[in-house]
Every structure is written in C-alpha cells, then in structure tokens.
TrEMBL record:
Entry EC number(s): 3.2.2.31
Protein name per Swiss-Prot or TrEMBL: Adenine DNA glycosylase
CDD domains, per database record: ENDO3c
Enzyme class: hydrolase
Keyword Cytoplasm: no
A Gene Ontology biological process term: base-excision repair
Nuclease is among the record's keywords: no
Catalytic activity: Hydrolyzes free adenine bases from 7,8-dihydro-8-oxoguanine:adenine mismatched double-stranded DNA, leaving an apurinic site
Cofactor(s) in the UniProt record: [4Fe-4S] cluster
The family this protein is said to belong to: Belongs to the Nth/MutY family.
Annotated HhH-GPD domain residues: 48-199
Length: 299
DNA sequence: AAACCGTGGGC
DNA sequence: TGCCCAAGGTT
C-alpha cells in the first residue's frame, strides 16, 4: 500500500510513544535521573522537590548525597544537623520526616528503600506521588506517577480543561492509559509526561507551538477554553504564621548554641503571634527548649 | 475538604 | 508591585 502523502497526525494510541521520542531530546539532564542513582538518592530528591523548584533543590541534594549517601548515614545524625542542612528549601518538616524515614528504613527495611508502593507510602512524608516516583524512578517499576505537572497535562490533553483543578483519583488511571506497555518504556514515559508539564504544558503560558502532542490535545481541539471552575486562591504568605515560623527558625539555624528568648523577640514584633509560632515549632519537633529556658534546634 | 506548612523567582 | 507558581503531605 502507498504511504499517506499527508503528515500523519498523532493518533490517540501512540501519545505515549510520541512523548517518549520527544523526551529523548527535550528532557533535562537532571542529576537524580542518572543510571547510577540509587533509590535512596531518588527518594531524597523527590522529597526535596515537593513544592520546591528544581534549581533550588539541586545544590542541596548534591550536598546531602555526599554527606548521607545511605539511609543509615542520615539516620545517625541529629535533627538539628538535618534542619541546618535543609537550609532554606522551605517546609522544614520535610527534613525531619526524611530523617524519620531514614530511621524507619534502618529499623524495618534493613537500611534499604523498599520497591513496594504500599511500604513506601507507610513512611513519614511519603504520599501517593512520592511513593510511586520512588518505585518508578528509583526501582524501575512501571508505575503511573501523578504530580502537579501530570495533572495539568491530563486535564488538557485528555479532558480538554484549561486547569487541573483538585486532584482526582482517576488521574492515575488516565496517565496509565497513555503509558506504553513495555515496562522500561513505561518508566521513561512517566519521566516524559512530567517533563512535558514542566517545560511545555506549563501553568501560565503553555508553549503549545512546541508541544509534540498538540494535534491530539483535547484542550486545543476545543479551542483552548478558559478555566471554568472557581479560581483557586493562592496562599498568602506575608504576615502569616508560616513567615513567622520561618523567621524564628532562621535565627535558630544561624545560632551556634541555644538562643535566649529576647533574641527571638527580634524575629517578629507581635508577641502573641510569635509565641504561638514558637509553640507550634516545639510541637512539630523543629525546636526544643533547654533546661535553662533557651531555645535551639533539636539535638 | 479545605487549610496549613516556607521560600524565592518570574512576569 | 503583587500575584502566581513550584516533582505534596498531613490533618
């Protein structure tokens, strides 16, 4: 039979293959993607990447891998050391949970990172996304992986919506339906979809002209309709407890030893809010009080 | 289910 | 400038 003279559009069946091909040249060469990266290194990267941009994670991740190349190594150090090494990645409870995860891996998994999704989800700070990412990228399992990028790609490509909206359990099945059957390709496909969302199918100004699947994108075919649902409101930061907690922790991170309360007073003027935030940091285990009443990162 | 948990860069 | 957003998880 003669081949078709017109360029063949991307059919629904090979979206996965097209994304795979695209990612061969377009995907970033991130350090936690290398062939020599073990599951622990992947786990650490994934936790750091929770709500934190790649560029800020990279240098810290390299430092952590050099210092604590195994769960046992991290499990052996104090929370204070881990919190300091976390630096200003944000959401420092992640650092505590990462250390707790390291302890759990030593105690319950012989110091190794399990490949089982349920076992991973049982670890502190490891949820639906991170568990599958570790199983997939760390252990080579063909797991569907759904993060904010993938939710956005699925919303547009599959459902023709402009925005992802709230997470849906069906997202997992939606990506799985696009994935190649062959396990090794399915793993690379999971990387590819995330890359598409991170580089092309971005939130604010999608670069549709550069999209490898624009011809089959339900959102484009529908004429790129505007978002329909209620605009999700963005979290305030200035003046919130999050900012105050950050200020307080900043003082404690910088200090050599225990800090007397008056020094913390300088971090935030409002005494009521300051006190509330210090209490919450104590409850979270990010701060502890010495017998003489001073404050420090937990030894 | 919705609110909370840091921080900084881009537009 | 102020808003939007970033490889989520927990409560």
């Amino acid at each position: 039979m003669d081949s078709s003279p017109s360029p063949s559009p991307v059919s629904g069946d090979d979206v996965g293959e097209v994304l795979l091909d695209w990612s061969e040249t377009a995907a970033r060469d991130l350090p936690w993607r290398g062939p020599d990266v073990d599951p622990w290194a992947v786990l650490v990267s994934e936790v750091m990447l929770q709500q934190t941009p790649v560029a800020r994670v990279e240098p810290v991740w390299r430092e952590w891998m050099a210092r604590w190349p195994s769960p046992a190594a991290l499990a052996a150090v104090s929370p204070a050391e881990v919190i300091r090494a976390w630096g200003k990645l944000g959401y420092p409870r992640r650092a505590l949970r990462l250390r707790e995860t390291a302890v759990a891996l030593v105690e319950r998994h012989q110091g190794a990172v399990p490949a089982d999704v349920a076992a991973l989800e049982a670890l502190p700070g490891i949820g639906t996304y991170t568990a599958r990412a570790v199983a997939c990228f760390g252990h080579g399992q063909p797991q569907p992986v759904v993060d904010t990028n993938v939710r956005r790609v699925v919303a547009r490509l599959v459902h023709g919506r402009a925005e992802a909206g709230t997470a849906r359990t069906s997202d997992l099945a939606d990506v799985a339906a696009l994935a190649p059957a062959e396990p090794e390709r399915a793993v690379r496909f999971s990387v590819a979809v995330m890359e598409l969302g991170a580089l092309v199918c971005v939130a604010r100004t999608p670069r549709c002209a550069a999209c490898p699947v624009r011809e089959v994108c339900a959102w484009r075919l529908a004429g790129c309709p505007a978002p329909d649902g209620p605009a999700r409101r963005v979290q305030k930061f200035a003046g919130t407890d999050r900012q105050v907690r950050g200020r307080l922790l900043d003082v404690l991170r910088a200090a050599e030893g225990p800090v007397p309360a008056p020094l913390l007073d300088e971090a935030w003027a409002d005494a009521v809010q300051r006190s509330r935030c210090l209490d919450s940091l104590l409850v979270d285990g990010l701060v502890e009080q010495t017998p003489d009443g001073r404050f420090r990162l937990p030894a």
